[in-house]
Each structure stands twice: as structure tokens, then as C-alpha cells.
Write a structure and sequence with these properties.
403 residues; alpha/beta; TIM Barrel; Sulfite Reductase Hemoprotein, domain 1; 8-stranded parallel β-sheet; 15 helices; elongated; binds iron/sulfur cluster
Length: 403
Amino acid sequence: MTPRRKSRQLRVGSVAVGGDAPISVQSMCTTKTADVDGTLAQVYALKGAGADIVRITCNDVEAAQGLAEMMPRMPVPIIADIHFQYRLALAALEAGVQGLRLNPGNIRDPEHIKTVAREAKDRGVPIRVGVNAGSLDKDLLKKHGSAVPEALVESAEKEIRYLEEVDFFDIKISVKHSSVPAMVDAYRLLAERVPYPLHLGVTEAGPPPGGLIKSVAGISTLLLEGIGDTIRFSLTADPIEEAKAGRQLLEYLGLRERKGLDLIACPSCGRAEVDVIRVANEAQKALEAESIPIQVAVMGCVVNGPGEAREADLGIAAGRGRGHLFVKGKVVRVVPEAQMVEALVEEAKRLVEEGIDARLAAADQDAEAIAQAAREELLEIQGDANRVEIKRRAVAEVAAPSE
Ligand code: SF4
């Protein structure tokens, strides 16, 4: 992974963005902002799913009033999303939001932008310059012919100049495009030209799984190059899915510490002794309900399972009507197949409470021997899928000196 690009740090309320701050996860409410109870409930759910910062539209006076009413009860910093009407940015600031997002494509009067920046500066509130290929400034669209990466970057730079002219530097920038290659190129270009933190996203990515794939492709490519300070998956789905996906992506890339479960499972094959898909889904549901922050493996057979998943904190592998529970690759307990998920959840809880060494020390003495017997029995019945003995003999024959 390329070392992270150095960006100027700012704060969105209690969350630092840029510099060496952890990369943050954002999402956006889909409720009507005037619906105070509904919006608050969604913000709390988004926080629970992994969002560090939540954006809420401020599209009319009722929305601004809703923000004013709910701001004191917000569990995470709130960014007001502003389009067309700069006065609503002033209203959102008055309501107490911790961040603003302005779209340069539709708030175009420099004096209006500067008025908002002066007010935001007085209140210590950062502004995201949120360029979007779909709503690019018409003059730039004409100049470049289409929303090419250079056009997105030029739009951002133009807006940044207005902000800097009034000594406003608490700036974040996004240059989102619905095309993954165009989005990646736009951010790469921008990263070389400005010192500000970057908010990554593929715009209008669509419903999962396509939307997820596009977002992961674009955001991961940049993060692995050290570019990006805060991210948002723009999915046509429940925003809870956006927040979860954002958080999971950062955990999988090793950019945030594991807060949730990391369930790994074998893809299953002809050797599987159990319906791996069903067991993995049941285990995921049960372990997520307990918010257990460890890596758990569900493997279809005891022949290869514990060995292949030896890096997992905990796992279970099926074989001969039983579940073989293993900790760091060592089988610690054997349970009836029907109790696999239940036993896995119980062991996961104990592992979190007592630690890996304690659970290894508490292993059933005969568990490893039972697993070994099941392995041998399965190999006898199914044969050695890797045909190790046949291959060894063939290699020896080839290597033997000829007469
Ligand atoms: S663990 Fe067993 S069932 Fe799963 S893919 Fe590997 S060999 Fe097949």
C-alpha cells in the first residue's frame, strides 16, 4: 500500500478529517429532513452501522428548521447538503450543523459562495466542495465537451479560489463521477494539485451488487494509492447498507480497526459435509447480533477446513455428522452437526471474554484426535482430492535414474 498522501487536517465537529486522522465513513439520510423523529432515528441507525459523519439535505426552510430542532440530539457530526440556494447554507449554519457541502455546479455566484464561507469561518465549520459529473458547471461542460476528469478538477479549483479569497481553508473536496475510471483519474489529478482532504465516492453507483462493486473498485484503488480521507458509498439502497459497506471496506483494507465481525467461509465444493451457504448465513446473522469483533471461519469439511482457515481466530468445520470447532487452526471441541452455529456463537463469546490462549488451554483433550480420525475417514471414503500419494510416486519415477 502506498503511504498516505499528506493533506491538511480539518474537523467536522468531533471527527478529524485529513492528515493522519483515521479515514472516516459517511452516509446520507433518505428521510425528509422536516421529519425530525424519522431523521433522528435514521442517523442513530447509521451510526450503529458504522457512519462517523452523516449528511442531511437542507433543501427548504422546513428542512433547516428540522435541523435546528434535531441538532442538539445528534450522535454524530452532521453535514448539510446544499444545492442552488446559498441562503439555505446560512440557515443550516444557524441551525448548528458541523459541516456544509456546496455544489459548485449550482451555486454559481462568487459573492454568494464567499458570504457562506465567511459565515462558516466564523463558526469554525468546514465546507466540502462537492463536484459531481452529473451537475457540472455548464461553462466547463461546454469547454471540455463532457464531464472529463480535467473538467471536474477545474470546477473544484475554481470554487476553491473563491473560498481562499476570503481566507477560508477548511475545505474538503470531492470530484465524483459514475464511471469508475473517470472518477479514479479525477481524484488522482486533484490529489497532485491541492493540499486539502479528499472525500471519495463513485456517484450514482446504483443498487447492489453493481453499485457495491463500482464503489469498492473506485474507492479501494485510490485508498491503496494513499489517496482519500473520508469515503461514501452512494448506493441505491437503504443507507444502512452504505454505512456498513464503507466501514467494512476500511476494516478489510486494514485502515480501521475491526469493530465488527469478519466472517470468512470456504466457497464449498464436492467435499463439503454440510450446506456451507446455509451455515455461513446463519452464523453471520447470529454473530452479528452479538457484535463480536473477531474473524470467524465456516468451512465445509474437516479435511482442509482448519488448516486453510488457520489464521482465523475461530472456526468450525463439518465432518461425519459433527462440527469441529477450532481456534487458530487447532481443534478444541467437537459438537453434533445440528449444534454447529450455536456452539460457534458460544465459543466466540468466550473467546472475546477470555482470550485465545485461555480458550486453547481449555480445549477438549480428545478433540484433535477425533478431528484427525474424521479427516482420515473422509479421505478413505472420498479419496485424496490433491492425489498427493499418486503425485509423489509419479515425481519419484520421473526423477529416478534411467537404466
Ligand atoms: S474446506 Fe473442504 S468443503 Fe470447503 S472448499 Fe475446502 S475442501 Fe471444499
